[in-house]
Design brief:
By secondary structure, the protein is of the alpha/beta class. It contains ten helices and 16 strands. The structure holds zinc ion (ZN). The site of zinc ion has 6 residues, from helix 4.
Length: 418
């Protein structure tokens, strides 16, 4: 049976490549969320052809769902002989803007030298193709699964996934009451299984000064000067401390096993492009991106930031500041004993001939919604494509990876739902 299914994947290779090319040619650029409906329909029609019951779900109560840019998700369900287990394969079909530096048409779906090129080729339209054709190869091999296979194409992962996977979870379309396993074919490399990600804490710090004539700064308080003290303390004290902490979670690349701090934006005083007047800055704002480890947790992370700010403020009596939370994403980690990890792992070994590596992602993806909102903890990311190529110019996915990953997912479905 396994050999029959794998042979069907090989036989469908041309179709899988073409389907990926066609997906790349639909420019689902986010922001603002172009061509979502066309892409959802295109995936939905293919799923319907492959005997899925297809449903389109618009994120009606989300503010980003507008007439000009509707947020339409698609779900297909192919029932087995029993309602459970249900394996859900999810792929986001939005892509980030192409940006500069391309040598091929980013939306041309060009195939050259065994690679499919284009924005989203790797992140993650190839992944959607693997999901669809993994299920189809099983059908073409004449295998009837006991369990159910569900495939969704969703919007907005690149901007947080609130009208996409989070919405499907809130609507209980992905929920622990009906869904057993979720696999997200993000481009984590064909031989790696991704079991989670670090946490995210975005916060905004505003320092308040007092405006005065720029020729007499000693009569005033500079908000920018206070902000530089904060930034200096973060780099001198916090960053070295973060460098000493190391997670047990196998985050890649290696340096992302430490927590990190980045300044997203800083803004203070007069507009740099504007007409300048001699004024001391009365306000400065900065936005920080702190990635934290499972072992640190959010509470400790926030307390540490708050404590440092208080210490800086205590050194100068005229320093006033506000701290505002902008985004909190808790870390996720698939339970070690999850049968899903073992199933993907064994399928990779069968197809590639060597064991898989377990990794975790430095950044977050839709896993967080599946874990937190749907309460489905048996969730991993596994898909074709090289992670480093995501969001780059001349993004590509190798056809060899695409076919191998389709085989791995097909075997995984057989194991979990067979
Ligand atoms: Zn992605």
């Amino acid at each position: 049976m396994i050999d029959r299914v794998l042979a069907e994947v090989d036989r469908a290779a041309g179709e899988i490549v073409e389907f990926t090319q066609d997906l790349v040619r639909i420019p689902t650029i986010n922001p603002p969320g172009e061509a979502y409906e066309a892409c959802a329909r295109f995936i939905g029609e293919r799923l319907a052809q492959f005997e899925f019951d297809v449903e389109y779900i618009a994120a009606l109560d989300r503010p980003e769902h507008t007439r000009s840019h509707p947020r339409i998700n698609v779900i297909g369900l192919r029932s087995g002989t029993q309602p459970r287990p249900l394996v859900h394969l999810n792929g986001h079909f939005d892509v980030v803007p192409a940006g500069d530096g391309w040598t091929v048409d980013p939306f041309g779906g060009v195939v050259r030298g065994g690679r499919i090129y284009g924005r989203g080729a790797c992140d993650m339209k190839a992944g959607i193709a693997t999901a669809v054709y993994a299920a189809e190869a099983i059908r073409r091999a004449g295998v009837r699964l006991n369990g159910c296979v569900e495939i969704s194409g969703t919007v907005d992962e690149e901007s947080g996934g609130f009208a996409g996977v989070a919405f499907l979870c809130e609507q209980k379309r992905i929920a622990s009451a009906r869904t057993d396993y979720v696999i997200i074919p993000e481009p984590l490399n064909v031989d790696r299984v991704c079991i989670g990600h670090r946490g995210v804490y975005w916060f905004e710090v505003t320092t308040h000064g007092r405006v005065a004539h720029g020729s007499m700064p000693f009569l005033s308080v500079s908000a920018i000067e206070h902000m530089t003290r904060i930034v200096d303390t973060f780099y001198r004290e916090l960053v070295p401390r973060l460098g000493e902490r190391l997670t047990d979670v196998p985050v890649v690349p290696e340096l992302a096993r430490h927590p990190t701090l980045n300044i997203n934006a800083i803004e203070g005083g007069q507009r740099v492009d504007g007409i300048q007047t001699p004024c001391v800055a009365d306000r400065c704002r900065a936005i920080f991106d702190r990635r934290f480890l499972l072992e640190e947790g959010f509470e400790q992370t926030r307390e540490e930031i708050g404590g440092l700010l208080e210490r800086v403020a205590a050194t100068s009596p005229d320093m006033f500041y506000d701290l505002r939370d902008l985004l909190i994403v808790h870390p996720v980690l698939t339970p070690e004993e999850s049968p899903l990890i073992g199933a993907v792992d064994r399928s990779i070994e069968h197809v590639l001939g060597y064991p898989a590596t377990l990794v975790a992602s430095p950044g977050t993806y839709d896993h967080k919604h599946v874990d937190r909102i749907a309460g489905v903890h048996d969730c991993v990311a596994y898909g074709p494509g090289v992670l480093d190529l995501a969001h780059q110019p001349d993004e590509w996915c190798s056809i060899d990876d695409l076919i191998k990953a389709t085989k791995v997912l097909a075997l995984t479905l057989l194991t979990l739902a067979g």
